[in-house]
Amino acid sequence: MRRRFCVLLCLPLLLLLSAATRARAQGNLLRNADAYEGTTYWRAFGNATVEEGAGGGHVFTLREGGYFIQHARVPDEAAGQYAVFVGEAMCEGCDAKERRGFPNLYGYMMDPGTTHEGGRIYAYVATSGMSYRAGINGWQRLSGIQRVPVGTGTVAFFLRQSIQPRDTSVRQVARFRNLGLYVFPSREAAQAFVS
Predict the structure, then answer these.
(1) How far apart are the C-alpha atoms of 106 and 69, rounded to whole Å?
(2) Is 40 helix (H, G, I), strand (E, B) or coil?
(3) What is the DSSP string of 142-194?
(4) What's the rounded Cα separation, in Å, for the pair 186 and 141?
(5) Which residues pair with 179 in a beta bridge?
(6) Which of 96, 120, 90 is nearest to 108 (CA)?
(7) Tens of pLDDT, residues 124-146
(8) Three-class secondary structure of residue 66 per DSSP
(9) pLDDT at position 25, please?
(10) What is the mean pLDDT of the chain?
(11) Quick check: 154 and 108 in contact, CB under 8 A?
(12) Tens-digit pLDDT profile for residues 84-100
């Protein structure tokens, strides 16, 4: 009897939690975040390509200072809430002493509808967690949290290397996968998602 009561009580909670998790996963503001549509929705500059990953799937790949950018529309009610930038990155040939070519996420928050240079930028997003850490091999999770300023309607989401753009002397290769841009009502909710 007790077991049946627990099942009857817990089942709706599990279904609700599952639905909330699915809704959050569907809330990614980036389009083509897994690169399965090639460079669709992304602007590629320099030596920036989409390649098949070693374990299957597709990855965004940067060489010689190339970079990708996507402008994502944020909901009108996002002002005052918290944007989360997430992704995984891998660096091939990165040397901790040299500190060049490391993959990082970067972004800025802009006027609504701005998809090119010249719009008003309200905030730059470049936290320490959004850069690849030396001495750790393989895929690393990168993330950053930024409060969305009033007036923001567009977020520019960059995939970059820690070098000057189009520096052809760099031989390191940066790869990215599992990208996401989400908005949460509180810093605590954003931090819980990142954790």
Answers:
(1) 9
(2) coil
(3) EEEEEE--TT--EEEEEEEESS-TT-TT---EEEEEEEEEEEESSHHHHHHHH
(4) 21
(5) none
(6) 120
(7) 999 889 999 877 778 999 999 99
(8) strand
(9) 34
(10) 83
(11) no
(12) 999 999 998 877 776 77
